[in-house]
């Protein structure tokens, strides 16, 4: 079925937006096959965004853990996270569609920044919606968006985080779809977004596959990535899905732990996490018995969201990928460990992947290879980390 | 002969009187269950020809601030699907004739179980269901359950709807066509968009279903304009809910304001 990943996915949006979605579907199908479009996109990626990003052997961490740890360095992409890949792809597409204005939601501010910067580069007007809780905890990114000429609209409804920012984007788009493109930042939302965002992120895994073959002459035992909506994870998983021996592990935000319900682990909480519809797609959603969406908690703004991309729901159902979680505390510890061992300060989002890798490594042998997707850099999180960890930084 | 549905009977009667339908929208349980019931009774007693009743949802993406706040007020009292159905049952006992349509977000139907939801809706006297975030492409399971339970499935036609989409929608719609009068979310607007009249003229020749215009209708003048352009009814939400919000501290005043507004709006349909 169109726009479905197994039973997941679909297009659950108001009629007013359906024509815009149909237009986007057509434009995307055309552009993804178009040589000129792809050449332009590649040029932006290599000359502007700094791709390919390196795959770094983490020597000190490897020694500490007793296996081989590699880091896919999305933190080194322009703007400091993988979000720039999708932002450039969609902004270019929007430009081809004749749209003059771009709107986007942001949680951690990385997608907002990437979108603001892509819009600046391509000469388009840009407005970003961001929850007031996130504005407070990701200040440096708010400033970067504004510097790039975007307007940042604070959202104070609901949980005042990513979910509510998406609500506002959908509302804006309902009124503005004639001249505006909604540049959704993860593999979420109605079709074609999940597939399109994955398409604009899949170079992460394609590069990593070549890089690891070159470095080690073989594929890794496991790939570990954090999962908010799930775009960096799909981005690195996709190229490895056919390689059945490579374990694909997604790490959700365990917040204060699963018990009390204060987390964003859609797959890990049997009480609150069930299939349902949020923001246009049928997927795993944290919700109460009646279907009211449950508010999430995570120390990392980018993972603090009630639903997960539908393709992840399918990969899990097929048992092709496994999903686990790391708590706030585990992520903060991992943040510190990677900074100290390797001199690489990961985003708090990515720190969740690092945290699980630290556990996973215990069952690895000396020559086993783990690739961790470092989806972004942690400069934006220093305020939060210092608040959470105080003087225990060293 | 198949007996007429409540909507059919009502539109037939209004047609013969050359009146449009005044259909107020409120959120079930706003600001609390008891007051909500009184607001709805007041609407029925003061000219409502049908009711559109909303199920409060945590993330109402098709709604502007006024209805979002109404949802939040209802949810702050933990109103849930069971409470909403119970309230509808009370309304149905109060008035057996008035057509009742639900406006709801898809996940609430899904989590109840689609078949179960429609069967419960039928039991409490619901006549039609509109799922705000379910376009015709995804509606098959709803249509099936609606048909099995003798409930109309209402669809939205928007200013952006293309001719091809209109055809697809009209092939499945029953009850009435919900014509969204503007590009945007719900909310009272000062003036109608020129799009509205154009849209009525675009849809009208393609269907025998009544056309009801909603989103932004907030004044008697708007009602006159759309009924004059050929619409069979108006759906008025945010303008009613505003009166609730403005009088949260004084129930008597709230009901008086709702009563006066309903009478004025109904008068404008004639
Ligand atoms: C650095 C970083 N990693 C991960 C995420 C989570 O998003 P996704 O799961 O789509 O990769 C974000 C989102 O803001 C982010 O900024």
TrEMBL record, chain A:
Q: What are the names of the required cofactors?
A: pyridoxal 5'-phosphate
Q: Which reaction does it catalyse?
A: (1S,2R)-1-C-(indol-3-yl)glycerol 3-phosphate + L-serine = D-glyceraldehyde 3-phosphate + L-tryptophan + H2O
Q: Where is the Tryptophan synthase beta chain-like PALP domain?
A: 49-376
Q: Which gene encodes it?
A: trpB
The main enzyme category here is lyase
The species is Candidatus Iainarchaeum sp
What does the subunit section of this Swiss-Prot or TrEMBL entry state?
Tetramer of two alpha and two beta chains.
Pathway(s) per entry: Amino-acid biosynthesis; L-tryptophan biosynthesis; L-tryptophan from chorismate: step 5/5
Indicate what this protein is called per its UniProt record. Answer: Tryptophan synthase beta chain
One term of GO molecular function: tryptophan synthase activity
Q: Which CDD domains match?
A: Trp-synth_B (cd06446)
Q: Which SUPFAM superfamilies match?
A: Tryptophan synthase beta subunit-like PLP-dependent enzymes
What role does this protein play?
A: The beta subunit is responsible for the synthesis of L-tryptophan from indole and L-serine.
The UniProt entry's GO CC annotations, sorted and at most eight, read: cytoplasm
NCBIfam families given for it?
A: trpB (TIGR00263)
Task: Please list the residues that carry the modification N6-(pyridoxal phosphate)lysine.
Answer: 83
| Pfam family, any one | PALP
Q: Which Enzyme Commission number(s) are listed? A: 4.2.1.20
User: Which controlled-vocabulary keywords does the entry list?
Assistant: Amino-acid biosynthesis, Aromatic amino acid biosynthesis, Lyase, Pyridoxal phosphate, Tryptophan biosynthesis
**What family is this?**
Belongs to the TrpB family.
